Every structure is written in structure tokens, then in C-alpha cells.
Recover the amino acids of this structure.
């Protein structure tokens, strides 16, 4: 995109969505037409073509991390979608996590965000007991950035550790080598339960050039690590396939040996009959375009998402800046914690700002989260939060203590949590309402969302003071024009960092959703998240009173 920041909040959500969708089409094109043509010239399908053939026809694909690495690695030509596709799709009636290297992007090499994206997919699969399919076509680590990919606990090696842990947990893993599989990356498919390999692919710790350099041995690609060698001599692979089409057909047959998913989740989760929402999804656009200070409120948004007539509000007259309650979503009973977007009047008479957490709302939500764990209800967090209330009165009332209660309850929840960023997601409000650091099974955002440590106005003022003070200590005085130029630059940089695409690029969220698709995606997420029941008891440890 030429403009690094989404259109201003005053722009309609439809216009912002058009900007996003245009760029998403480009991201799905991977390395572009020339790179796709090179892949086809080798007799190979692209990653997206492979996935389309692998999944059941006319079934939805929930893609995660499409925006990963957006705007990053520009000095290396960029890495659209971080060079890997991660998605949940249905194969032979059973949902699988699919991880497919995109060889049209730097030969499928692993950038730092590539590793993080694969690790995110593995975490989701582990928590939901989703079988995994790896479509391997990668040149290994992107060497110019090796120090940011190789050694740490959230880097390349952790993927292989997870392969072993997933296998020990009894979660099936299938790998199909359909191109390069080089160096340490070779451990991934070999650690899987079933391993397929196509003719012309290569699997080796060191390629022919490196072997010659290291030990002086002259050897061909096929002799060193071709499919025939691994099928006939090393015995490393299980199935030797002539091409992509045959490999994908065999893969579907192997997966088809297992029974398809049950329509009902395992107890204590349950799914009832589905009812249509009270309001159509098309009402979301005007609700989000409206100024929340002038009456737009979160209950109206909920009426567009949950099954009609199913919402029962919890403590409706108390702690009103958070709306809590139970509902059904696609037949799934859920708990909902949602920020109220407009000003409310507390029972004591004073007004409270919308999108702000007060002592009463934090304590209400903490109790409600505990109830959801007692009742085995997945929790949906709808964030439009500016943070916790500040000031003398709030501190004396114990705002930090109340916030700690909510953080404790959310952190120790045993039920699946799904988070949707509707608007602001700032500071400790992001934490208390299940931001990325608090293990939501899925975390999504609307184009209206913003994510940062504080709002733009407060942050700009604070950063400006810090920079100006630093310069003054160095003996440099700023005149009015310099101060205004500094303010402009600081504001622009902060706006760029709060743009939801900035968050999506760093995998702080899994996907940017069109509000019209939200109910469908949330239902898919619940179908995935309720596949497995946590064996951990619900416990809180030391709890503030």
C-alpha cells in the first residue's frame, strides 16, 4: 500500500475495508506472477493451489496470519504473509491445521515472522487437538537474518520441539515434501507420523554445494537427498509420489482412515440449535461508523452477532462500562465480556466514561469470568477499551487491586477464550480483556481497531515531553516551529504503530475481519476451540480482596 496508515477514523468502514481487501489480494498472490510461473515450470503447484486441492470442496478455510510480516523486511524485498500459509480447513470431514510453505516467496525461506507464524499455528492446534498437515517446500532459514530465526525459544528450533510434543500428545501430524526441505528444516517432516515426498524434491541436511565445500564430495541432488534415495536406501520417507497431484490424493486417503469430526463437541461443551441474530449483520456498518459518544452502544452490536433472544445480561445495572452476559452463538453457549462504548451513569449518580474500566466494572467482570469457568462456557471478549480509570479517586478506590482480580481470573481460565478488537485496545485494558499475551485461542480485529500502550493523543504528548526534555539536557532549545514539527513526526509515527495492520504484521492478532463475516468466523472458532476439554482445574492462587 502506498499509504502506510489506514484512512482516518472519520472514513467509513466500507472505505477502509476496500483498502484492506485490495492489499489482501496482493498478499495472497505471494511472490507474484513471475514466481508462480517458475513454480509451475517445475511441475509444482503453488501453496494455495495445494491447499485448495487438499481440503473438501465447498468447505470454509479459516486463514490465520495473512498480514504477517507486512511492511517488514523491505531491505530484502519483503516477505508477503511471511512466506507461509497457516489455515484451518476440513479434510475428509475432519478439521486440520494446515501449514504450507509458499515457495514463491524467497523459495519458502524462514524469516523471523515465518517461525512465529508456524509456532502460533502449532499452539492453536495443540490447544484444540487439531491434526496438522505440513506441506513442505522451503529453502530453510533466511541466512541474512539467521540470528533472529535460529536460537531462541520462539524461533525455528521450537517448531521441531513442538513436533515431538504434539506427537507425544497423540495429535496426528502429516508431512508432504513437495519441493525443497533443507538443513535443520529436514527435522520437521521426519518428526511427523506420516511422511510423503514427491519426485524431484530434495531432503538433506546440506545441499550438494555445501557438501562439496565441507568435505570435498561431488554428489548430485538426487543421489544426496532425492525421493528415490530416501524411499529405497535411507528409508526416511513412507510414500514416494510422482507429483503434487498424486501426493495430495494419497494424503487425503491417509487422512480419510480417521473418522470425521462429531457434530457435537465433547462434554461438558454442548451445541444447541442455531437461531438467526435479532438484527442483520449489515447493521454493523452504521453502528461502527456512528460516533459512540452519540448513542452507539455495544448491546446493539451483540444483537448482530449472537443468536436472537439468547442474551441474558449479568449485573446489568452495576459496573455498566462493561456489559457481561451469557448467550448462544451458532448454538454454542458462551459468556460475553464487552466494553460499553458510550458514557453511562453509575448507580451512585456520577457519570462514567465509555470504554474505560472502573473498579465496579472490573470486579463484575472478574466474578463473571469465574462463573464462566464454573459453567464451562467459552468466553468472548469484545474490546473497545481505553484502559483503566486514573486519578486520586480511582486509586483510593483500589483500581489496581480490582484490575488485578480481573487479570488473575482471565489468566487462569480453563475455558477457551476468543477475543475481538472492535475499536481501541490500549494499555492494561488490552491485558485485562484477554489480549494476545493472555492466550486467547483466537484473536481477531475489525478495521476500526487500534492497538497500543495508550491512545494517540496521550502518547503523542508524553513522547513529545520525553524527547524535548532529552534535547534540553543536551543543551538544545526548541523554538515553536521545531516543536510543532517534532509533534507532527511523533504523531505520524505513533499513528502508524497503532494501525491495526501493524499489529497484524506482528501476529498480535490472527486476522482482520470484515464485520459482516464476524459471526461466521466466531462460530468456526467455537467449533475448533471446543474440540478439546482442558484437564486442568480452575484455580486462582493468591487473589486480591
Amino acid at each position: 500500500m502506498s499509504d502506510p496508515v489506514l484512512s482516518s477514523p472519520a472514513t467509513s468502514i466500507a472505505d477502509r475495508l476496500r483498502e484492506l481487501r485490495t492489499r489482501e489480494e496482493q498478499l495472497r498472490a505471494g511472490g507474484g506472477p513471475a514466481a508462480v510461473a517458475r513454480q509451475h515450470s517445475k511441475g509444482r503447484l503453488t501453496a494455495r493451489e495445494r491447499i485448495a486441492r487438499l481440503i473438501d470442496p465447498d468447505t470454509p478455510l479459516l486463514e490465520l496470519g495473512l498480514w504477517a510480516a507486512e511492511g517488514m523486511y523491505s531491505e530484502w524485498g519483503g516477505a508477503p504473509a511471511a512466506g507461509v500459509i497457516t489455515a484451518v480447513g476440513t479434510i475428509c470431514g475432519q478439521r486440520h491445521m494446515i501449514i504450507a510453505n509458499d515457495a514463491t516467496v524467497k523459495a519458502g525461506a524462514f524469516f523471523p515472522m515465518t517461525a512465529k507464524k508456524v509456532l502460533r499455528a502449532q499452539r492453536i492446534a495443540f490447544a484444540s487437538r487439531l491434526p496438522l498437515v505440513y506441506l513442505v517446500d522451503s529453502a530453510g532459514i533466511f541466512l541474512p537474518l539467521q540470528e533472529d530465526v535460529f536460537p531462541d525459544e520462539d524461533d525455528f528450533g521450537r517448531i521441531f520441539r513442538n513436533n515431538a510434543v504434539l506427537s507425544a500428545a497423540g495429535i496426528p501430524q502429516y508431512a508432504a515434501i513437495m519441493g525443497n526441505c533443507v538443513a535443520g528444516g529436514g527435522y520437521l517432516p521426519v518428526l511427523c507420523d506420516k511422511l510423503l515426498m514427491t519426485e524431484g524434491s530434495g531432503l538433506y541436511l546440506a545441499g550438494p554445494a555445501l557438501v562439496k565445500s565441507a568435505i570435498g564430495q561431488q554428489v548430485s541432488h538426487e543421489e544426496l537427498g532425492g525421493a528415490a534415495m530416501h524411499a529405497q536406501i535411507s528409508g526416511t520417507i513412507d510414500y514416494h509420489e510422482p507429483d503434487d497431484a498424486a501426493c495430495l490424493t494419497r494424503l487425503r486417503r491417509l487422512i480419510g482412515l480417521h473418522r470425521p469430526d462429531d457434530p457435537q463437541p465433547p462434554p461438558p461443551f454442548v451445541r444447541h440449535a442455531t437461531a438467526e441474530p435479532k438484527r442483520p449483520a449489515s447493521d454493523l456498518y452504521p453502528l461502527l461508523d456512528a460516533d459512540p459518544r452519540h448513542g452507539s452502544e455495544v448491546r446493539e452490536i451483540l444483537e448482530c452477532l449472537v443468536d436472537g433472544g439468547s442474551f441474558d445480561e449479568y449485573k446489568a445495572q452495576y459496573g455498566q462500562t462493561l456489559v457481561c452476559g451469557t448467550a448462544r452463538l451458532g448454538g454454542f453457549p458462551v459468556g460475553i465480556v464487552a466494553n460499553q462504548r458510550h458514557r453511562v451513569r453509575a448507580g451512585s449518580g456520577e457519570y462514567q466514561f465509555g470504554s474505560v474500566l472502573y473498579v465496579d466494572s472490573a470486579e463484575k467482570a472478574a466474578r463473571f469470568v469465574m462463573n464462566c469457568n464454573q459453567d464451562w462456557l467459552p468466553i468472548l471478549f469484545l474490546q473497545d477499551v481505553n484502559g483503566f480509570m486514573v486519578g486520586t479517586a480511582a486509586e483510593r478506590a483500589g483500581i489496581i487491586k480490582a484490575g488485578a482480580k480481573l487479570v488473575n481470573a482471565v489468566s487462569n481460565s480453563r475455558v477457551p477464550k476468543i477475543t475481538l478488537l472492535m475499536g481501541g485496545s490500549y494499555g492494561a485494558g488490552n491485558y485485562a480483556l484477554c489480549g494476545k499475551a493472555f492466550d486467547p485461542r483466537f484473536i481477531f480485529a475489525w478495521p476500526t481497531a487500534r492497538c497500543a500502550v495508550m491512545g494517540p493523543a496521550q502518547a503523542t504528548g508524553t513522547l513529545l515531553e520525553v524527547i524535548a526534555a532529552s534535547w534540553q539536557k543536551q543543551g538544545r532549545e526548541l523554538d515553536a516551529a521545531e516543536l510543532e514539527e517534532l509533534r507532527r513526526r511523533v504523531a505520524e509515527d505513533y499513528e502508524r504503530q497503532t494501525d491495526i495492520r501493524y499489529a497484524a504484521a506482528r501476529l498480535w492478532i490472527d486476522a482482520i475481519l470484515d464485520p459482516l463475516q464476524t459471526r461466521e468466523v466466531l462460530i468456526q472458532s467455537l467449533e475448533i476451540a471446543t474440540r478439546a476439554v482442558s484437564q486442568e482445574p480452575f484455580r486462582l492462587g493468591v487473589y486480591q480482596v
Summary: DSSP finds 20 helices and 20 strands in the chain. The mean pLDDT is 92. Residues 480-498 form the longest helix (19 residues).
